[in-house]
Amino acid sequence: MNNIPVIHMSSVTKKYYIGEPNELQILFDIALDINEGEFVSIVGASGSGKSTLMNIIGLLDRPTDGSYMLNGTDTKVLDDIQLSRIRNKEIGFVFQNFNLIPKITALKNVELPLLYAGVSQKKRTERAMELIELVGMGDRYTHDPSQLSGGQKQRVAIARAMANNPSIILADEPTGALDTKTGRMVMDLFHRLHKEEGKTIVLITHSPELASETDRMITISDGRIIADADRTSYNADEAVAEQEVSAPEGKEAEGE
Amino acid sequence: MNILESIKMAFTSLMINKMRSFLTMLGIIIGISAVITITTIGNSIQKTLSNTFSTLGSASLELYLEIKDDYEGDDYEQDEDDMIKLSMVDELISQHPNELYMSKSEDFGQAHLMNSENSELTVNMLGITDSQFKLPTVRKQIIKGRAITKTDCEEKKHSCLVTDIFLEQYCKDDENIIGKTLTFTMESGENLHFTVVGVIEYTELERNQLGMNKSSNLNDIATHIYVPYHTMLKLSGKDPSKTSVDWVNICWTSECDVETAKKYCREYFDKVYANNDQWQVAIYDPEEQLGMINTVLNVITIAISIIAAISLIVGGVGVMNIMLVSILERTREIGVRKAMGALNTDIRRQFVIEAIIICLIGGLIGVLIGITNGFLISAIAKALMNSMASQYAEYITLTVQPSVTAIIVSLGFSMATGLVFGYYPAERAAKMNPIDALRYE
Question: How far is B103 from B248, CA to CA, in rounded Å?
């Protein structure tokens, strides 16, 4: 772990319709540091501004004011092309509705970020297969998304997010479209990636239960961070207990 | 991302929606196939004409008298002084001895003679220069002996060429006709003696023209007897140097070409006729006629092609329409691609290439259909010709020649159609805001 935080935000604000009578401020003075290897959840009700914050973290949107440093790089000075490149290499997105590209195979979906990174076909397939195996989808990589269940789709999507070995995995309500059981499976996968691969994961959710599983819970309300609880110490024994509960399921997922 | 990956990706997308891709292509296919069909027909007609011309047409300039453009009198009589004289032609040729030569044939009137079975035959006597046999029009097949030579003309020999039909009429294919001296009784009652030096074979077309197939009695057919031109002049009591002619053919050797020959003739006769305020010498080049037909054909082909090309624009609008629909449908996909790090250029290129591929494949199919149409139409034309004008059928070789230029231009044009009509939708896709695109339902 180095000293530079992966994400360093200070005084980030976001306004829409600037200068118009219906000017709308979504984020107020956000200050946030996320270090390498952290598993952070951002919780908030809908409309609290957590999606906007996620878009800014994911470099899909720019803050109106304030600074956002990603791995020590000030994102303000970057142009759209540079932002795309960083998005490609440093950020892995996992969406609520999976957002796999229809009618192409799971493998091709996982290859997508590698394709835009300019990796050769041979290396792309190699890396994608590796990831598909990692998420336990080794026997279904030729299926296209319409032939996969929700949980399977999300696992493919997570493999895709991992493709370029990004600094952060940004998961927006990853279990929102899944039932409890498969949602559990996906959460276990995140825990595994966090523990085994040491990934920095930012989980955006409206569910306090899911958030309570993570090391650190950031609560956002009306565009402001109202709580930032580091739960690492508290989480230690719970994590052990959790692992015992989820172990059979984890194995099942691997064995699939 | 390189261009090859983009092309592969575009193919994948097009294969996903095969029916739609094909229907989109249809507009392009119809447009291109129409253009190629028309240009193939036009090109084939040209090729057929020029082939027919080179087998039947002549490679000589025809010189004859015509009224000067600025002549305003009402006397249209040709005086002996106005006529083209052989001496002029000789002088022209002597100025360019290795480049030009004269070719002339003239009717010498009918004659009669008795064959070996003592029945009377009628023949048409024809005086020809030796060069007549060099012309494609009279490129006769000498089957026995030799042709009329320069020496025959210069020394005014009494040699003659007979035809294969005459041979049958006269002596039933006697092997020893060469060297025999025949006696012809002219209309004037005069008897002339000519020694046979060669036998030529009539072409199928000439046989038909002589009525070979219709006439019941072979001996009724009047065939041609060719005698040296100068011998004929002498026998008619004319002085070659003072003889005037209605027309004369000027040919050129390999050391010269048609344009130079034309220039020589023009220069010489303009000088000679400079003081004649009524007449000048016209120089007629049959190839020019062909050129004119070709020009007309080209104009027609281009005009119809343009009309057909308009359907390409309609096809192009179809492509644009489908691309817009497809982009709307794939908004989420575009959002995902952008979130995954696709640049605007990657997205734009992906959709432009899809449009170009649709148009290019449509164009290729159109070209194939167009060429097939050309062959089908030629087959129909051949069948029609065989039933309607059978006697000429074998002289006209129908050549199907798709125009390579048209094919290249149409393929280029269809690609350009894809580029032009694909660019706007692709640009729209590229400019999409990834957040909105990801949220699109």
Answer: 7
Measured between CA atoms, the residue of chain B closest to residue A54 is B435
Q: Which residues of A touch B438 (CB under 8 A)?
A: 60, 95, 99
* The one-letter amino acid at A143: H
How confident is the model at residue A246, as a pLDDT? 45
Element (H, E) at A247: helix A232-255
Closest CB to B341 among A85, A103, A121: A85
What does the DSSP assignment read for A24-36?
A: EEEEEEEEEEE-T
Q: Is A160 on the interface with B (CB under 8 A)?
A: yes
- pLDDT, tens digit (0-9, with 9 covering 90-100), for A182-210: 999 999 999 999 999 889 999 999 888 88
Residue among B247, B255, B250, B325 at smallest CA distance from B281: B247
Strand partners, B185: B112, B191
Beta-carbon count within 10 A of B92 CB: 20
From CA B426, how far away is CA B334, in angstroms rounded?
11
Chain B contact present for A80, CB below 8 A: yes
- Dump pLDDT digits (tens) for B396-408: 777 888 889 889 9
| Complex confidence, ipTM | 0.86
Q: Phi-psi bin for A15: left (phi > 0), alpha (psi -120 to 50), beta?
A: beta
pLDDT for residue B419 is more than 80: yes
CB-based contact A101 B337, cutoff 8 Å: yes
Does A89 contact chain B (CB < 8 Å)?
yes
> Do A84 and B332 count as a contact with CB atoms less than 8 A apart?
no
Query: Could you tell me whether strands B191-201 and B181-186 are parallel, antiparallel, or unpaired per DSSP bridges?
Result: antiparallel
Cross-chain Cβ contact A93/B339 below 8 Å = yes
Q: What confidence score (pLDDT) does residue B83 get?
A: 82
Q: Which of B1, B341, B346 sits opposite A87 (nearest CB)?
A: B341
Q: Are the Cβ atoms of A81 and B438 closer than 8 angstroms?
A: no
Cβ of B5 and A115 within 8 Å?
Answer: yes
Strand partners, B114: B120
B348 Cα to chain A: minimum distance (Å): 14
Look-up of token digits 């097939």? B372
Give me the mean pLDDT over the B426-440 stretch: 92
Q: Which chain B residues contact residue A58 at CB under 8 A? A: 339
Is A86 a residue whose pLDDT tops 90? yes
B398 CA: distance to closest CA in chain A (Å): 51
Q: Which residue has the higher pLDDT, B171 or A233?
A: B171
Which domains are present in chain A? 7-255 (3.40.50.300)
Tell me, yes or no, if the pTM score tops 0.80: no
Interface size A-B, in CB pairs within 8 Å, comes to 57
Residues A246, A231: Cα–Cα separation, whole Å: 20
- Note whether B177 and B144 are within 8 A (CB): yes
Structure confidence at residue B426 (pLDDT): 95
CB count in 10 Å sphere of residue B94? 9
Predicted pLDDT at A237: 47
CB nearest A55 (choices: B332, B333, B435):
B435
The pLDDT assigned to B259 comes to 81
